[in-house]
Amino acid sequence: MEISSLFLQIFLGLTLLTGLAKSDPDPLQDYCIADTKSPLSLNGAPCLNPTLALSSHFTTSALAKPGDTKANQFGFSVTLTTIANLPGINTMGITMARVDIAGNGLVPPHSHPRASEVTICLQGAILVGFVDTSNRLFTQRLEPGDSFVFPRGLIHFLYNEDARKPALAVSGLSSQNPGAQIASRAAFVSSPPIPDVILEKAFQISPREVAEIRKNLGG
Fold it and tell me: Residue 213: what pLDDT?
């Protein structure tokens, strides 16, 4: 194989991989309001006829109301913009999230496989952090007005340091569908469950401890 041909194949391969690495594809029009009534199943949602576009398709009050932090054992609630409450977000490659955290509540270590995230603290004092692939921890205490960036795919957390007062943050994520996976629940409450022997060896714990953690997490 000629060197020039080899370089061309490498270039084309890298170009393809670079394109595939993007969180969401770029839109091909000004906007693509989600047609939530369409029976089609696509990577995203079909577009509503542009002539039917309204200002209301681009606005939402979904983030105006506090979430229920008592709905889980960790004491947090996340409210997202979606194509259901903000149809105009379809194909824009972004999501907004309201994060309510009860006193000493925790958004447990989790990751977003398809998005980076920037969080702005609006109320309270929030300890945030992420761990990189070298197992290095980066943490910061956020006060109202402070921001912090969580790189795409990395494990991160948010913790309300105040035991008496709730905390509030708003996040922007770089995907229409960022996904979220809580590390502890993925390991111990998957369906079907990961075999106990795997968890025992991975976490260096006993069978009794595996059962207890599963129970505590609702497994």
Answer: 97
- Give the Cα separation of 132 and 187 in Å (integer): 19
- Cα–Cα distances in angstroms (integers) from residue 37 to residues 34, 40, 56, 83, 212, in the given order: 9, 9, 17, 11, 44
Cα→Cα distances 44→9, 37, 139, Å: 31, 13, 34
Record the tokens describing residue 181, joined without a space.
């996976």
What is the rounded average pLDDT of the residues 90-110?
96
Q: Which residue has the tokens 């714990």?
A: 205
* R_g (Cα) of the chain, nearest Å: 21
Interval 136-146: pLDDT, tens? 999 999 999 99
- Alpha-carbon distance of 50 to 58, in angstroms, equals 13
Phi, then psi, of 168 in degrees rounded to 5:
-140, 135
Q: What's the whole-number average pLDDT of the chain? A: 90
Count other Cβ atoms within 10 Å, centred on residue 160. 28
Torsion angle defined by CA atoms of residues 102, 110, 145 and 176, in that order, rounded to the nearest 10 degrees: -110
